[in-house]
Amino acid sequence: MADDTKTNGSVKLDPSKPILQPAGYDENSPIHRYETSEILWWDNGVWGKAGYAIPNDGGKPTTPNETIHFVHKFIGAEMFNLMHRDDVKFSRPFNAEWLFDLNKMLTLGIKRLSDYSVSWSDKRKGDAEHATNTPRAFTVYPIPFFGERIRQQDALRWAGQVLLVLSEVMQHSDNDFDDDVTDLFVAMVQSKLRRIQQDMAMKYLGFTREQVEAADFVIPDTAFAKGSYDPSALFTSREMIEERMPEQWWPSTNDLTPIAGVASTVANVFAKRWPIADGFYGDGGASESTNPGGGSGIVSMPGPRPS
What we know:
By secondary structure, the protein is α+β, with helices and mostly antiparallel strands. It contains nine helices and twelve strands. Helix 2 packs antiparallel against helix 3 and helix 3 runs antiparallel to helix 5. The termini are far apart.
């Protein structure tokens, strides 16, 4: 007998619809969900026009696992903070404070995952004997990602890697446990955080591949101290300067307050694929341009692709 209690977003095939339609397509609904593993465009008014993105939960927006919920929220909130600083507006290297805070987030994320991990031979002390946790929505933190708002390409690359690991966290099978996480889950997340940390250490701090791949590698705080951090030795003169960016709207702290932590079940209402391959020209959606009148910048959609 078929199990009709599944409510995890799985979709049944409808013989009345063309087989090549997206799995979540409903012609009677204003929201056309795409079953896709891509990072999702958060097309919510001005945030959508500014190219904001959220992780892809793969149809699993909730979890009863308190540990996973906390780790997901910690990483998302820290990246939200980093991606709204001035450093990401420029293609030139970050200042030391931005890199220091990124490294601190990665280091603490790696440590806390180890603190919570249980191996296959351990007793799952966090799981309930009878009662179970009520599933709750993941908390997501939309960040600028698509389009041309973010000039700092390493910030963009690392943000993409963080969005992907957050997506993996939301879809991992450990979510079906009440509280504990397995060492397999921890190793998966830690490996992705270490990849960012190693990349940053080599490119911006001058560490070698052999150094960053050592089992006991850590970046000392002194690497970010005044007089120690000097990107001019690791970047060309062209990479150290750039043309001024167009005048454009950037959110204030007050603007960001309403989106500083949104339940995934709410955020998903505005989630869709970034339209890079859907007939748009240029960057596919959120092209920045300067207001001809000299006032605040405006965000405009690109025109049709030239024939």
